[in-house]
Automatic annotation (TrEMBL):
Protein name as catalogued: Transcriptional regulator, TetR family
Keyword DNA-binding: yes
Sorted UniProt keywords: DNA-binding
Lineage, top ranks: Bacteria, Bacillati, Actinomycetota, Actinomycetes, Streptosporangiales
Annotated InterPro entries: Homeodomain-like_sf, HTH-type_TetR-like_transc_reg, HTH_TetR
DNA-binding region: 40-59
Residues covered by the HTH tetR-type domain: 17-77
DNA-binding listed as a keyword: yes
Alphabetical list of Pfam families matching this protein: TetR_N
SUPFAM superfamilies in UniProt: Homeodomain-like
Length: 204
C-alpha cells in the first residue's frame, strides 16, 4: 500500500478528519441557531466552507449526520466526565460528584447552540431517541462505577439510581437551557450534586 501524501504538511487521513469535524461543527451551529429544518446539504457545506462532494464523502443523508452528532456529543460528555472523575479520585464523594456534574453540564452549557441542538437532535427520529437513551445509560453506568469505587462492581440498585439521576438531570438541564428554570449554573450543579450524594450515599 502506498503511503498517503501530505498536502500542505497535513496527511490525507488528517484532512479527512478535519473536514468531518468541520461539517459536524457546522451542523451543530445550524441546528442550534436555526433549527433542524434548516439543515440542508447546501447550508451545511457553505457553513463548513467545503465543497458538497466532501459531504457525501462522509454522510449518505441527514440521519447519518444526526447519528454522527449524537456519537460526537456522547464521546465529548464521556471524556469530560471521565477526566473530572480521574482528577478527583480519592476525594470525598461530594467533591467527586460536583466535579463530574460540572463537567457534563459544561459540555452543553459552554456553547448554548450545542445544548439546544442536542435537545432537538435527541428526539429527531426513532434512531436518535434510541441513541440518546444509550448515551444516558452509558453515562449512568460510568457514574455508578465511580460511586461504587474500584474495589467492587456497581450493584443493580446503584446502577438504577444513577440512571434515574442522569435521566432526570437531562430533563432538568433541558429546561434550564431553555430558560424555564430560574437558577444560576452553579446553583444547578450544586442542587444536582446534593441529590446525587443523598440518593447514592447509602449504597456505596
Amino acid at each position: 500500500m502506498s503511503a498517503q501524501r501530505p498536502y500542505g504538511g497535513v496527511k490525507a487521513v488528517e484532512r479527512r478528519a478535519q473536514r468531518r469535524a468541520a461539517l459536524l461543527g457546522a451542523a451543530f451551529e445550524i441546528i442550534g441557531a436555526q433549527g433542524l429544518d434548516k439543515l440542508t446539504v447546501g447550508r451545511l457545506c457553505a457553513r463548513a466552507g467545503l465543497n458538497e462532494r466532501y459531504y457525501y464523502e462522509h454522510f449518505d443523508g441527514r440521519d447519518a449526520v444526526l447519528s454522527a452528532l449524537l456519537d460526537a456529543l456522547a464521546e465529548e460528555l464521556t471524556t469530560a466526565i471521565t477526566r473530572a472523575l480521574d482528577a478527583t479520585r480519592g476525594a470525598d464523594p461530594r467533591t467527586v460528584a460536583h466535579a463530574a456534574i460540572a463537567a457534563g453540564v459544561g459540555v452543553l452549557a459552554d456553547d448554548p447552540r450545542k445544548g439546544k441542538a442536542a435537545q432537538i437532535i435527541a428526539s429527531a427520529s426513532p434512531e436518535s431517541r434510541v441513541r440518546t437513551a444509550q448515551t444516558i445509560t452509558a453515562i449512568a453506568d460510568l457514574v455508578a462505577s465511580s460511586a461504587a469505587g474500584r474495589a467492587r462492581p456497581a450493584t443493580t440498585a446503584l446502577r438504577f439510581r444513577a440512571g434515574y439521576l442522569v435521566g432526570g438531570l437531562v430533563m432538568v438541564l433541558g429546561a434550564w437551557l431553555q430558560g424555564q428554570l430560574a437558577m444560576t449554573r452553579e446553583e444547578l450543579i450544586d442542587h444536582t450534586t446534593d441529590v446525587f450524594v443523598l440518593v447514592t450515599g447509602d449504597l456505596r
